[in-house]
Amino acid sequence: MAGTAYQTAAYQDRRAYHALDYTCAVARIAALETRLLGRGDYEKLLGAATAADAARLLEQFGYKASERFGDLLSDALSALFTLTQSLGGEDFLKIERLKYDYHNLKALVKKELTASEEAGDDLLSDLGGVSVAAMKSAVINREYRGLTDNMKRAAAQVYDQYARLADVQLTDILFDRALLGDMLMYAEKQPEPKILEIIKTRIDLYNIQTFVRVRKMAAADRAREFMRRAVAAGGKIPPGFYLGNIAAPPDGEAAVFERTAYASAFAAGENLERSLDNLLMEQVKTARRGAFGLAPVAAYFWLKENEIRNLRIILTCKNAGIDADAVKRQLRG
Fold this sequence. Notes:
By secondary structure, this protein is an all-alpha fold.
């Protein structure tokens, strides 16, 4: 499994990082940002008669023509990785490739544990730092060279807990927490502090959503134990905050988070997950303003990735005949 992204010591020395070295990359990004889709563009797509019509409209926005919109968007995401690497974003991409590696690892381990056929090759991603073939070999042979220490540890914990409890939900928690641990570790190694701050925010968003979900699912004592297992370290809000507030009054989350940077996400009537994602996108937009170095490169990646996600929501929902207003409420950013 030689040659994975996690075996190469390619990180730049922090002392050798000079933001002005990215002047040409930032100029390229500035031009590309003018082509990011805005509210009016999404409205145009939502007004198309069918998903196929909407997919054809995407040609106007620089996407390839294809009636197979799943492939169209996957190709766009792959092209985004290629572009980001060409602009000097290799260290940053090590963070972003992790979620695809964990997606593949989780799917393959679950398939083995449950003897299901759900993790077919069409559901695996080739955007990770470990090839699909290498990840399959690692899971089949229980030989994890080339994976991160957190991946190895999480896989061992998953097999152990499943043998004792057969709890698929706990499998998700173990892998999700390990993913965030790896993202934090690689964010701390790359040289741009704004990227690290956004990764810490992503850890907070995971913990907040887990906190709200756990409180709805279980009584206080059980919820506290569940949260103790699930909470990820390294965010701006310490793990003890969630454990200390797990027994707050029902529907009292707004009061719990009122003195945090996420208070506005708890506005009455708003979808919490969407509101938190929008706060993250605002932080991304702020990070790119007037900046040089890796920050604008990373910010463009995240904004374009979010655009591709919005397009997937639009095309999937239109294909299912879902009302345009309902689709609009699911869009991020």
